[in-house]
Amino acid sequence: MSVPVGQMMSVLRHVAIQRLRGNDKYPLVLMLEPLFRCNLACAGCGKIQHPSEILRKHLSPSQCLKAVDECGAPIVAIPGGEPLLHPQIGEIIEGIVARKKYLYVCTNAIKLEEMLPHLKPSKYLAFSIHLDGLQKEHDASVCRDGVYEIAINAIRAAKKAGFRVTTNSTLFADAEPERCSQFFDEVMQLGVEGMMVSPGYSYEKAPEQDIFLSREKSHGLFRKIFKGGGSRWKFNQSPVFLEFLKGNWDLECRPWGTPSYSLFGWQKPCYLLDEGYAETFSDLMKTTDWGSYGRASGNPKCQQCMAHCGYEPAAVEATFGSWKGFLRTARLALFGPPATNQGETVLTAPERLRKVTLPVLPIIDSV
Ligand code: SF4
Ligand code: SF4
Q1: Domain residue limits at 79
Q2: Total-model pTM
Q3: Which ligand ends up closest to the CA of 150?
Q4: What pLDDT digit, counting tens, does each position of 223-256 carry?
């Protein structure tokens, strides 16, 4: 199973409590951004364009832990900038793990090997390594040669030291289905716990704008990638979200599922858009005009978006919102995608059961 059972139970408990309280908007994953600076400058990054006085700053451990407590989400992700550049990242990690939150530290892995001796493995802690493809594609994506090799070595070292390791990959317009399949095979051979994949969001601030995938192109790309036998790969994502990427399951964005906290406060409405800030989590939930976001709202900034942060919470809602949704998801997890998706390798039900990932997972994006 690519998501720990404890994590699934923790999320299920959280969802059940929220539903019992009649709360239909609740957080699942806190996206905590303690800093924006990075030791890379990727072409598709929407986080490192802040002025240098902002890039020099970071949140203190107590600010980070206050945000974790305020939000109450069972999962915390620390995405980019590069978290391992934070001078007190060890203290932040320790504090979150002590609170029994499932923590995913998203890193480009450049500093990971040197950090490992200073950190303690835990079932609550996983590294989510930024890898956007095989060597050629990844080094091009991060705009620096040699980073792929550093990341692969860091994955091996982290695994050897007893840490949980996952990967997160953002695909762009130049992604080739064949190469993506080879890449997923290679990552599986490294023995990672699971992979996460998502099309890149077309940040207005990203230095290059013609690299992003439209929805239609994303559907075509993911269908082709999975046609070659996707069931041999383990994803740290819900099967519903993967079907959504292929265009086989319609979802509507649920941005409140992944609230984002940074140097500026609680970001409205999501990790990707930057339309104002609230001082407290409670204010974020109360004062954001949620109806103005998501595809159905007609907001042009949301039309092509298929990112984890809006749509993994939607996958949870699709599964637990009704018995019909739950049964549909269970069928998908046990028996695979419907027959319309020709060409996928068919697994037996027991084989699928061993790979089942209910939609109760991390939603992580490094850019
Ligand atoms: S995408 Fe991630 S690794 Fe690349 S520059 Fe942005 S924060 Fe750094
Ligand atoms: S559709 Fe994408 S950009 Fe729009 S609110 Fe949802 S996650 Fe944010």
Answers
A1: 5-355
A2: 0.89
A3: 1
A4: 999 986 677 899 988 889 999 999 999 999 999 9
